């Protein structure tokens, strides 16, 4: 028996087995490259199949809205498998980021209309955060008190960001743009964070924008990780509907809660990426021979892989714990898993030798995924700094410099 999964329930094991079986058949390296180059950046047919057969998009959504009704641990387990396969899909943008915000903030009518369509994979959604500040908006990096006002939505107090103003006759109009939006070029629905009310009394609110809305233009961007497509979104007096109520503090709380969940789920995905990179590397060093013996028999290689094995196991444990307590452990687990994925994929490239550096080999796909994920919700040192501040490990005030006699005399003279 695989002792690494001894704590899983029968239902969780079945989710893992079925998903791995489907992805193994549909996510080979050649297939990944072909799908990543399509206009959507993912396989809509596979996404629909995952929704119909496994209920993956609605795995953690309530049953009353067409979801499966499972919890975050089950969704995290699924993310492990998608990380192993580098699945190009709307899972992160739609299921991890957008669906929890609609659930938390949407009106009863909005939830009833949108969540069932998200759950059955008939609708995809993208969270539009201006300024490339997704990690800041979700409360994962930055000082605890500096990002709650949502200044990032207005371009940090300068020209830019996305602005919202009431439309004549009701509704809202949005003006601005945002880049590096996950699935922003292809999603059927956009969830846009915009600044409303002017700077003296402004607040950040979330708005729903349909793909066919007038004034909306979108384009796909070139990204480091082609399996994680991103787009630029431009809004020119684009009509939008307010998500829920005009309640800035509620939006800030919902973004923070979603950020903790997203950190735990991306940690799980990164741990899956690292685990697969290690498995493929171990298989390679067992087969590749040098000086008449497998290179895996050399002590230096064995030591490197042994150290990496410990890191991967520790990262997976951290990710699974974070799935049970995202608010308490999500940020720290994400930092650990991102760092482990970066190390594991870099070692995979090195230990595969010359073939690992070629475009034809799959190792560079995993290396780019690890690097791209850190750019998405990192960096690692920022995540750890934020966690340390929240844990009270930094002094709240800068210690005062002891006053010297010269300083006292200068003060008296003034």
From TrEMBL:
Keywords: FAD, Flavoprotein, Oxidoreductase
Occurrences of domain Acyl-CoA dehydrogenase/oxidase C-terminal (ranges): 264-389
PANTHER family: ACYL-COA DEHYDROGENASE (PTHR43884), ACYL-COA DEHYDROGENASE FADE28 (PTHR43884:SF20)
Disordered: annotated segments: 391-414
Domain of life: Bacteria
Protein name: Acyl-CoA dehydrogenase
Molecular function in Gene Ontology: acyl-CoA dehydrogenase activity; flavin adenine dinucleotide binding
Native organism: Streptomyces inusitatus
Matches recorded under InterPro entries: Acyl-CoA_Oxase/DH_mid-dom_sf, AcylCo_DH-like_C, AcylCo_DH/oxidase_C, AcylCoA_DH/ox_N, AcylCoA_DH/ox_N_sf, AcylCoA_DH/oxidase_NM_dom_sf
Cofactor: FAD
SUPFAM superfamilies: Acyl-CoA dehydrogenase C-terminal domain-like, Acyl-CoA dehydrogenase NM domain-like
Family note: Belongs to the acyl-CoA dehydrogenase family.
Ranges of residues in domain Acyl-CoA dehydrogenase/oxidase N-terminal: 9-120
Name of the coding gene: acd
Biased composition (Low complexity): 395-414
Record has Transit peptide as a keyword: no
